[in-house]
UniProtKB/TrEMBL annotation:
Lineage, highest ranks first: Bacteria, Bacillati, Bacillota, Bacilli, Bacillales
Organism: Bacillus cereus
Protein name: RNA polymerase subunit sigma-70
Entry keyword annotation includes Aminoacyl-tRNA synthetase: no
Gene Ontology biological-process annotations: DNA-templated transcription initiation
Transcription listed as a keyword: yes
Length: 184
C-alpha cells in the first residue's frame, strides 16, 4: 500500500474530502485505536472504545483547521486528540459508574420499604434540608423532577462537571448524615 503524505491528507480533510478521511482510517486507525485502548484499558467495553474512536474521527473531520503543521507532525496531533478524547470518555464512564453504584446502594437499602410517593418526597425534603439552597434546587431538579445533567447545567448557568460535582458532594454529605461510613 502506498502511504499518502500527511500534507495531502490534511489538505484533503480541509476540503472535506471523504477519501482523505478514509486514508486517515487506513493509515492511522490502528494507532488511534491503540491510544484509546491504552487509556480506557480492559475495564471499559469494546463498544465504548469504538464509540470514542468514532468521536475522534469526527473531531479530526470537523476540527482539522486547528491542526498547525508548523507546531508538529499530523501523527502527533492525532495521538494527542485521541488521548484527550479517551481521557474525557474515561472520566464520563467513571462518573456514570459511580452514579449507578450509588443508585444501586439506595435501591438495596430501600427495596424492603414501600413508601408512597408523598412519603418518599417528604423524606427527600427532610434529607436535603441540610444542603445549601442552590444544592437543594439541583437535587430537586435531578431526583424529583428528573431533569438531565445538561438541563440543570443550562438552567443554573453551570458546566455539566460543576453539576456532577455538586451532586456528588451532596450525596456524600447525605450519606454521612445517614451514618454511612464507606469512603468513596
Amino acid at each position: 500500500m502506498i502511504r499518502v503524505k500527511d500534507i495531502e491528507i490534511v489538505e484533503g480533510l480541509r476540503k472535506q474530502d471523504m477519501l482523505a478521511l478514509h486514508t486517515v482510517i487506513d493509515q492511522y486507525g490502528d494507532l488511534i485505536y491503540k491510544v484509546v485502548h491504552s487509556v480506557l484499558d480492559t475495564a471499559h467495553s469494546k463498544v465504548l472504545v469504538d464509540e470514542c474512536v468514532d468521536d475522534i474521527l469526527l473531531i479530526v473531520w470537523y476540527n482539522i483547521n486547528s491542526y498547525d503543521e508548523n507546531r508538529g507532525k499530523f501523527k502527533n496531533w492525532l495521538i494527542s486528540v485521541a488521548k484527550f478524547k479517551a481521557i474525557d470518555y474515561k472520566r464520563k464512564s467513571n462518573k456514570i459508574y459511580q452514579l449507578q453504584e450509588f443508585q444501586q446502594e439506595i435501591y438495596e437499602e430501600g427495596k424492603n420499604i414501600d413508601p408512597t410517593k408523598e412519603e418518599r418526597d417528604c423524606n427527600f425534603f427532610v434529607l436535603i434540608k441540610e444542603l445549601n439552597e442552590e444544592d437543594k434546587k439541583i437535587f430537586i431538579k435531578r431526583y424529583l423532577d428528573e431533569y438531565s445533567i445538561q438541563e440543570i447545567a443550562l438552567e443554573f448557568g453551570m458546566t455539566r462537571d460543576t453539576v456532577y460535582s455538586r451532586l456528588s458532594r451532596g450525596r456524600k454529605k447525605l450519606k454521612k448524615m445517614l451514618g454511612g461510613n464507606r469512603d468513596e
